[in-house]
Design brief:
Rossmann fold, 425 residues, 2 domains, 6-stranded mixed sheet, alpha/beta
Length: 425
Protein backbone atom coordinates (compact mmCIF):
# COMPACT_ATOMS: atom_id res chain seq x y z
CA UNK A 1 0.00 0.00 0.00
CA UNK A 2 1.30 3.44 -0.98
CA UNK A 3 1.23 5.90 1.94
CA UNK A 4 0.43 9.43 0.82
CA UNK A 5 3.29 11.83 1.50
CA UNK A 6 2.72 15.34 2.81
CA UNK A 7 5.13 16.65 0.18
CA UNK A 8 2.88 15.37 -2.61
CA UNK A 9 0.63 18.43 -2.76
CA UNK A 10 3.64 20.72 -2.49
CA UNK A 11 5.17 19.20 -5.65
CA UNK A 12 1.89 19.68 -7.54
CA UNK A 13 1.61 23.31 -6.36
CA UNK A 14 5.19 24.21 -7.23
CA UNK A 15 4.76 22.84 -10.76
CA UNK A 16 2.18 25.62 -11.22
CA UNK A 17 4.54 28.38 -10.04
CA UNK A 18 8.06 27.30 -11.11
CA UNK A 19 9.71 26.19 -14.32
CA UNK A 20 11.70 23.57 -12.39
CA UNK A 21 10.80 21.69 -9.20
CA UNK A 22 13.69 20.22 -7.22
CA UNK A 23 12.69 17.33 -4.94
CA UNK A 24 15.42 16.63 -2.39
CA UNK A 25 16.05 14.38 0.58
CA UNK A 26 18.37 11.66 1.82
CA UNK A 27 18.65 8.37 -0.02
CA UNK A 28 15.77 5.95 0.58
CA UNK A 29 13.49 8.68 1.97
CA UNK A 30 10.83 7.97 -0.66
CA UNK A 31 11.48 10.62 -3.35
CA UNK A 32 11.29 8.22 -6.30
CA UNK A 33 8.14 6.49 -4.99
CA UNK A 34 6.50 9.88 -4.50
CA UNK A 35 7.28 10.97 -8.06
CA UNK A 36 6.27 7.68 -9.65
CA UNK A 37 2.88 7.82 -7.91
CA UNK A 38 2.18 11.55 -8.04
CA UNK A 39 -0.95 12.53 -10.03
CA UNK A 40 1.05 14.34 -12.69
CA UNK A 41 0.05 13.71 -16.33
CA UNK A 42 2.60 13.21 -19.11
CA UNK A 43 5.58 12.34 -16.94
CA UNK A 44 8.78 11.31 -18.70
CA UNK A 45 10.69 9.58 -15.87
CA UNK A 46 14.47 9.16 -16.14
CA UNK A 47 16.56 7.72 -13.31
CA UNK A 48 20.32 8.17 -13.32
CA UNK A 49 20.49 5.14 -11.02
CA UNK A 50 19.97 3.24 -14.28
CA UNK A 51 23.40 2.60 -15.79
CA UNK A 52 22.20 3.03 -19.38
CA UNK A 53 20.39 6.29 -18.60
CA UNK A 54 23.41 7.57 -16.69
CA UNK A 55 25.74 6.83 -19.62
CA UNK A 56 23.37 8.53 -22.04
CA UNK A 57 23.14 11.68 -19.92
CA UNK A 58 26.88 11.76 -19.26
CA UNK A 59 27.73 11.35 -22.95
CA UNK A 60 25.58 14.25 -24.18
CA UNK A 61 23.87 16.31 -21.48
CA UNK A 62 22.58 18.88 -23.97
CA UNK A 63 20.79 16.30 -26.12
CA UNK A 64 19.47 14.42 -23.07
CA UNK A 65 17.71 17.54 -21.79
CA UNK A 66 16.70 18.91 -25.19
CA UNK A 67 14.80 15.77 -26.18
CA UNK A 68 11.99 16.71 -23.76
CA UNK A 69 8.59 16.92 -25.44
CA UNK A 70 6.77 20.22 -24.98
CA UNK A 71 3.77 18.52 -23.33
CA UNK A 72 5.83 16.41 -20.92
CA UNK A 73 7.09 16.99 -17.42
CA UNK A 74 10.60 15.60 -17.63
CA UNK A 75 11.73 13.96 -14.39
CA UNK A 76 15.46 13.40 -13.82
CA UNK A 77 16.04 11.32 -10.70
CA UNK A 78 19.38 11.47 -8.81
CA UNK A 79 20.54 14.43 -10.89
CA UNK A 80 23.61 14.98 -8.70
CA UNK A 81 25.25 12.10 -10.60
CA UNK A 82 25.47 14.25 -13.77
CA UNK A 83 25.60 17.88 -12.57
CA UNK A 84 26.24 19.03 -16.16
CA UNK A 85 22.50 18.57 -16.71
CA UNK A 86 21.80 21.57 -14.44
CA UNK A 87 23.40 24.00 -16.89
CA UNK A 88 21.46 22.54 -19.80
CA UNK A 89 18.16 22.78 -17.91
CA UNK A 90 18.98 26.39 -17.05
CA UNK A 91 19.71 27.10 -20.74
CA UNK A 92 16.36 25.60 -21.80
CA UNK A 93 14.10 27.25 -19.22
CA UNK A 94 15.73 30.65 -19.75
CA UNK A 95 14.37 30.48 -23.31
CA UNK A 96 10.96 29.11 -22.33
CA UNK A 97 9.23 30.59 -19.27
CA UNK A 98 6.49 27.93 -19.14
CA UNK A 99 5.86 26.51 -15.67
CA UNK A 100 6.28 22.87 -14.70
CA UNK A 101 8.78 21.79 -17.35
CA UNK A 102 11.20 19.73 -15.25
CA UNK A 103 11.29 17.89 -11.96
CA UNK A 104 14.78 17.08 -10.75
CA UNK A 105 15.38 14.99 -7.66
CA UNK A 106 18.49 14.22 -5.73
CA UNK A 107 19.85 12.70 -2.55
CA UNK A 108 22.61 15.33 -2.50
CA UNK A 109 22.25 19.08 -2.81
CA UNK A 110 23.64 19.71 -6.31
CA UNK A 111 24.40 23.33 -5.34
CA UNK A 112 26.98 22.14 -2.78
CA UNK A 113 28.81 19.55 -4.89
CA UNK A 114 32.53 20.29 -5.48
CA UNK A 115 31.97 20.23 -9.26
CA UNK A 116 28.87 22.45 -9.13
CA UNK A 117 29.18 25.49 -11.38
CA UNK A 118 25.55 26.27 -12.17
CA UNK A 119 22.51 27.27 -10.15
CA UNK A 120 18.80 27.32 -10.86
CA UNK A 121 18.24 30.27 -8.55
CA UNK A 122 14.98 32.02 -9.38
CA UNK A 123 13.92 29.14 -11.61
CA UNK A 124 13.48 26.21 -9.23
CA UNK A 125 11.16 25.60 -6.31
CA UNK A 126 12.45 23.16 -3.68
CA UNK A 127 10.49 20.38 -1.96
CA UNK A 128 12.10 18.48 0.91
CA UNK A 129 11.09 14.84 1.32
CA UNK A 130 11.97 13.54 4.76
CA UNK A 131 11.69 10.04 6.11
CA UNK A 132 8.18 9.30 7.40
CA UNK A 133 6.78 11.18 10.35
CA UNK A 134 4.51 9.21 12.65
CA UNK A 135 1.52 11.32 11.57
CA UNK A 136 2.21 10.53 7.90
CA UNK A 137 2.42 6.83 8.65
CA UNK A 138 -0.97 6.99 10.36
CA UNK A 139 -2.61 8.90 7.50
CA UNK A 140 -3.02 12.10 9.54
CA UNK A 141 -2.86 15.43 7.71
CA UNK A 142 -0.24 17.97 8.84
CA UNK A 143 -1.52 20.43 11.42
CA UNK A 144 -0.01 20.01 14.91
CA UNK A 145 1.92 23.31 14.89
CA UNK A 146 -0.55 25.21 12.75
CA UNK A 147 -3.37 24.34 15.17
CA UNK A 148 -1.28 25.45 18.15
CA UNK A 149 -0.71 28.79 16.38
CA UNK A 150 -4.51 29.14 16.35
CA UNK A 151 -4.61 28.81 20.17
CA UNK A 152 -6.18 25.36 20.08
CA UNK A 153 -5.45 22.22 22.09
CA UNK A 154 -6.71 18.61 22.08
CA UNK A 155 -8.49 19.20 25.37
CA UNK A 156 -11.17 16.50 25.01
CA UNK A 157 -9.12 13.78 23.36
CA UNK A 158 -7.85 10.58 24.98
CA UNK A 159 -4.24 9.62 24.45
CA UNK A 160 -2.25 6.41 24.49
CA UNK A 161 1.36 7.23 25.18
CA UNK A 162 4.21 5.94 27.33
CA UNK A 163 7.98 6.18 27.38
CA UNK A 164 8.57 2.71 25.97
CA UNK A 165 6.43 3.31 22.86
CA UNK A 166 8.06 6.71 22.24
CA UNK A 167 11.55 5.24 22.44
CA UNK A 168 10.53 2.34 20.20
CA UNK A 169 9.30 4.81 17.56
CA UNK A 170 12.49 6.84 17.87
CA UNK A 171 14.66 3.73 17.43
CA UNK A 172 12.63 2.63 14.41
CA UNK A 173 12.79 6.04 12.70
CA UNK A 174 11.00 6.71 9.44
CA UNK A 175 12.88 5.17 6.52
CA UNK A 176 10.18 3.55 4.31
CA UNK A 177 12.11 0.27 4.03
CA UNK A 178 12.58 -0.01 7.80
CA UNK A 179 9.16 0.83 9.19
CA UNK A 180 7.82 -2.69 8.61
CA UNK A 181 10.76 -4.45 10.32
CA UNK A 182 9.96 -6.00 13.68
CA UNK A 183 13.38 -7.46 14.27
CA UNK A 184 16.24 -5.31 15.63
CA UNK A 185 18.60 -7.56 13.69
CA UNK A 186 16.81 -6.78 10.41
CA UNK A 187 17.00 -3.05 11.13
CA UNK A 188 20.69 -3.25 12.02
CA UNK A 189 21.44 -5.20 8.85
CA UNK A 190 19.58 -2.68 6.68
CA UNK A 191 21.23 0.35 8.27
CA UNK A 192 24.68 -1.26 7.98
CA UNK A 193 24.14 -1.82 4.26
CA UNK A 194 22.75 1.70 3.90
CA UNK A 195 25.80 3.34 5.46
CA UNK A 196 28.38 1.14 3.75
CA UNK A 197 26.88 0.80 0.27
CA UNK A 198 25.06 4.08 -0.21
CA UNK A 199 26.24 6.82 2.15
CA UNK A 200 29.96 6.06 2.06
CA UNK A 201 29.85 5.26 -1.65
CA UNK A 202 28.17 8.59 -2.47
CA UNK A 203 30.64 10.56 -0.34
CA UNK A 204 33.55 8.88 -2.11
CA UNK A 205 31.98 9.23 -5.57
CA UNK A 206 30.74 12.83 -5.30
CA UNK A 207 33.23 14.45 -2.93
CA UNK A 208 36.29 12.32 -3.64
CA UNK A 209 36.68 11.51 0.06
CA UNK A 210 38.96 8.51 0.53
CA UNK A 211 39.34 8.21 4.31
CA UNK A 212 36.47 5.81 4.88
CA UNK A 213 37.22 5.23 8.56
CA UNK A 214 37.29 8.95 9.30
CA UNK A 215 34.00 9.52 7.48
CA UNK A 216 32.41 6.74 9.55
CA UNK A 217 33.74 8.36 12.73
CA UNK A 218 32.37 11.76 11.70
CA UNK A 219 28.97 10.21 10.96
CA UNK A 220 28.98 8.49 14.35
CA UNK A 221 29.92 11.79 15.98
CA UNK A 222 26.96 13.44 14.28
CA UNK A 223 24.76 10.87 16.04
CA UNK A 224 26.52 11.45 19.37
CA UNK A 225 26.08 15.23 19.11
CA UNK A 226 22.58 15.21 17.61
CA UNK A 227 20.45 17.86 19.38
CA UNK A 228 23.66 19.38 20.79
CA UNK A 229 26.06 22.12 19.77
CA UNK A 230 28.99 20.74 17.79
CA UNK A 231 32.54 22.11 17.77
CA UNK A 232 34.20 21.17 14.48
CA UNK A 233 37.55 22.28 15.86
CA UNK A 234 37.29 19.77 18.72
CA UNK A 235 36.31 16.98 16.33
CA UNK A 236 39.19 17.80 13.99
CA UNK A 237 41.58 17.51 16.91
CA UNK A 238 39.98 14.24 18.06
CA UNK A 239 40.36 12.62 14.62
CA UNK A 240 43.77 14.22 13.93
CA UNK A 241 42.61 15.78 10.66
CA UNK A 242 42.85 19.34 9.40
CA UNK A 243 39.87 21.57 10.18
CA UNK A 244 39.25 22.09 6.44
CA UNK A 245 39.15 18.33 5.90
CA UNK A 246 36.69 17.78 8.72
CA UNK A 247 34.58 20.67 7.45
CA UNK A 248 34.46 19.00 4.02
CA UNK A 249 33.24 15.76 5.61
CA UNK A 250 30.57 17.50 7.67
CA UNK A 251 29.45 19.60 4.68
CA UNK A 252 29.12 16.43 2.59
CA UNK A 253 26.99 14.72 5.24
CA UNK A 254 24.78 17.80 5.49
CA UNK A 255 24.54 18.13 1.68
CA UNK A 256 23.34 14.51 1.60
CA UNK A 257 20.51 15.50 3.96
CA UNK A 258 21.74 13.23 6.77
CA UNK A 259 22.10 16.10 9.24
CA UNK A 260 20.47 19.50 9.64
CA UNK A 261 21.81 22.53 11.47
CA UNK A 262 19.55 24.65 13.66
CA UNK A 263 20.56 28.18 14.59
CA UNK A 264 20.13 29.80 17.96
CA UNK A 265 17.17 32.15 18.41
CA UNK A 266 18.92 35.43 19.02
CA UNK A 267 17.62 38.68 20.44
CA UNK A 268 20.26 41.08 21.75
CA UNK A 269 18.17 42.06 24.75
CA UNK A 270 17.25 38.50 25.75
CA UNK A 271 19.75 37.44 28.38
CA UNK A 272 22.71 37.27 25.94
CA UNK A 273 21.68 34.12 24.04
CA UNK A 274 24.18 31.82 22.40
CA UNK A 275 23.98 31.48 18.64
CA UNK A 276 26.26 28.49 17.89
CA UNK A 277 24.24 26.06 15.74
CA UNK A 278 23.02 22.67 16.90
CA UNK A 279 23.05 19.64 14.64
CA UNK A 280 20.28 17.07 14.27
CA UNK A 281 20.34 13.72 12.52
CA UNK A 282 17.50 13.71 9.98
CA UNK A 283 16.32 10.26 11.05
CA UNK A 284 16.34 8.99 14.61
CA UNK A 285 16.48 5.37 13.41
CA UNK A 286 19.81 5.94 11.68
CA UNK A 287 20.98 7.81 14.77
CA UNK A 288 20.02 4.90 17.05
CA UNK A 289 21.87 2.48 14.76
CA UNK A 290 25.03 4.59 14.88
CA UNK A 291 24.73 4.74 18.68
CA UNK A 292 24.27 0.95 18.77
CA UNK A 293 20.89 1.35 20.46
CA UNK A 294 18.71 -1.40 19.04
CA UNK A 295 15.80 -1.74 21.48
CA UNK A 296 13.85 0.22 24.07
CA UNK A 297 15.38 -2.00 26.77
CA UNK A 298 18.81 -0.60 25.89
CA UNK A 299 17.57 2.77 27.13
CA UNK A 300 14.98 1.88 29.76
CA UNK A 301 17.17 -0.49 31.78
CA UNK A 302 20.54 1.18 31.37
CA UNK A 303 20.93 4.31 33.51
CA UNK A 304 23.98 5.32 31.48
CA UNK A 305 22.23 4.99 28.11
CA UNK A 306 19.06 6.58 29.48
CA UNK A 307 21.01 9.61 30.68
CA UNK A 308 23.41 9.94 27.74
CA UNK A 309 21.31 8.80 24.78
CA UNK A 310 17.61 8.52 25.65
CA UNK A 311 16.93 12.25 25.90
CA UNK A 312 18.78 13.29 22.76
CA UNK A 313 17.33 10.39 20.77
CA UNK A 314 13.77 11.43 21.66
CA UNK A 315 14.56 15.11 21.03
CA UNK A 316 15.95 14.23 17.59
CA UNK A 317 12.84 12.17 16.86
CA UNK A 318 10.61 15.10 17.88
CA UNK A 319 12.69 17.46 15.72
CA UNK A 320 11.96 15.32 12.68
CA UNK A 321 8.24 15.12 13.48
CA UNK A 322 8.13 18.93 13.62
CA UNK A 323 10.22 19.46 10.49
CA UNK A 324 7.88 17.33 8.39
CA UNK A 325 5.26 20.04 8.94
CA UNK A 326 7.61 23.04 9.01
CA UNK A 327 9.01 22.18 5.58
CA UNK A 328 5.52 22.68 4.14
CA UNK A 329 5.62 26.35 5.23
CA UNK A 330 8.56 28.19 3.64
CA UNK A 331 8.07 31.27 5.84
CA UNK A 332 8.25 29.34 9.12
CA UNK A 333 11.50 29.09 11.05
CA UNK A 334 12.80 26.73 13.71
CA UNK A 335 15.49 27.70 16.22
CA UNK A 336 16.57 26.78 19.70
CA UNK A 337 17.17 29.15 22.60
CA UNK A 338 19.99 29.00 25.11
CA UNK A 339 21.34 31.72 27.36
CA UNK A 340 23.23 31.80 30.63
CA UNK A 341 20.09 31.03 32.62
CA UNK A 342 17.45 29.75 30.20
CA UNK A 343 17.06 27.08 27.53
CA UNK A 344 14.19 26.04 25.24
CA UNK A 345 14.59 23.10 22.87
CA UNK A 346 12.63 24.52 19.92
CA UNK A 347 11.28 27.93 18.99
CA UNK A 348 9.00 27.71 15.94
CA UNK A 349 7.99 31.06 14.41
CA UNK A 350 5.24 31.43 11.81
CA UNK A 351 4.66 34.08 9.13
CA UNK A 352 2.79 36.30 11.62
CA UNK A 353 5.63 36.30 14.14
CA UNK A 354 3.81 33.98 16.56
CA UNK A 355 6.15 31.64 18.42
CA UNK A 356 5.56 28.12 19.75
CA UNK A 357 8.20 27.23 22.32
CA UNK A 358 8.60 23.47 22.82
CA UNK A 359 10.44 21.64 25.56
CA UNK A 360 10.97 17.90 25.03
CA UNK A 361 10.88 15.52 27.99
CA UNK A 362 11.31 11.79 27.42
CA UNK A 363 9.76 10.86 30.79
CA UNK A 364 6.13 10.14 31.67
CA UNK A 365 5.75 12.89 34.28
CA UNK A 366 6.12 16.67 34.37
CA UNK A 367 6.75 19.12 37.18
CA UNK A 368 6.57 22.89 37.57
CA UNK A 369 10.32 22.99 36.89
CA UNK A 370 9.72 21.80 33.30
CA UNK A 371 7.79 25.02 32.54
CA UNK A 372 10.09 27.65 34.07
CA UNK A 373 11.94 28.55 30.86
CA UNK A 374 8.67 28.69 28.90
CA UNK A 375 7.14 30.98 31.54
CA UNK A 376 10.17 33.26 31.35
CA UNK A 377 10.00 33.46 27.55
CA UNK A 378 6.26 34.11 27.65
CA UNK A 379 6.91 37.05 29.97
CA UNK A 380 9.49 38.42 27.51
CA UNK A 381 7.39 38.05 24.35
CA UNK A 382 3.91 38.51 25.77
CA UNK A 383 1.00 36.09 25.94
CA UNK A 384 -0.31 37.12 22.52
CA UNK A 385 2.96 36.18 20.80
CA UNK A 386 4.11 33.03 22.59
CA UNK A 387 2.65 29.57 23.25
CA UNK A 388 4.58 27.30 25.62
CA UNK A 389 4.37 23.51 25.26
CA UNK A 390 6.11 20.62 27.01
CA UNK A 391 5.99 17.44 24.93
CA UNK A 392 6.30 14.40 27.21
CA UNK A 393 5.64 10.66 27.23
CA UNK A 394 2.62 10.73 29.54
CA UNK A 395 -0.98 10.17 28.46
CA UNK A 396 -2.74 13.29 29.78
CA UNK A 397 -2.78 17.01 29.00
CA UNK A 398 -1.54 18.98 31.99
CA UNK A 399 -1.54 22.69 32.69
CA UNK A 400 1.71 24.32 33.67
CA UNK A 401 0.02 27.61 34.49
CA UNK A 402 0.42 30.97 32.75
CA UNK A 403 -1.08 29.56 29.54
CA UNK A 404 1.53 26.80 29.15
CA UNK A 405 0.64 23.13 28.75
CA UNK A 406 2.17 19.66 28.71
CA UNK A 407 1.00 17.51 25.80
CA UNK A 408 1.53 13.78 25.26
CA UNK A 409 3.88 12.96 22.39
CA UNK A 410 0.97 11.23 20.68
CA UNK A 411 -0.70 14.62 20.20
CA UNK A 412 1.77 15.00 17.31
CA UNK A 413 -0.50 12.70 15.29
CA UNK A 414 -3.88 13.46 16.84
CA UNK A 415 -6.89 14.65 14.83
CA UNK A 416 -6.51 18.44 14.87
CA UNK A 417 -10.07 18.95 13.61
CA UNK A 418 -11.18 17.99 17.14
CA UNK A 419 -8.92 20.47 18.96
CA UNK A 420 -10.52 23.31 20.96
CA UNK A 421 -9.66 26.91 21.79
CA UNK A 422 -7.73 27.38 25.01
CA UNK A 423 -7.11 30.32 27.31
CA UNK A 424 -3.70 31.90 26.74
CA UNK A 425 -3.68 33.65 30.11
Amino acid sequence: MIIQRWANEEVIQKLKTHRVVSVVGCRQSGKTTLLLNAPIPNIDFNSLDSNSTYKEAKADAAFFVRRKKSTDVMVIDEIQKVPELIGQIKFNVDRDPAKGQYIISGSSDYRKLPQANESLAGRAGFVRVRTFSEAELRGIKPGFLNTLFKNMLPLSLDFECDKRSVIEMAIRGGYPEVISFDSPEDRSSWFTDYVQNQVLYDIRDQWGVRKKNTVEQVLESAAIYSSRELSKANLASKFSVAWDTLNTYMSAIEAMYLIDTVSGWAKKDFDRPGIAPKIFMTDSGLMAHLLQTTSAEDVLYSPEKSQNEGGKLVETWVYNQLMSEINLHPTWKINYFRSRRHEIDFMVTNEKGLVVGIEVKAGESVSSDDFKHLHWMKDQLGSEKFIGIVLYSGDRIRSGGNGCYALPMSSLWSDTTRWELFDQH
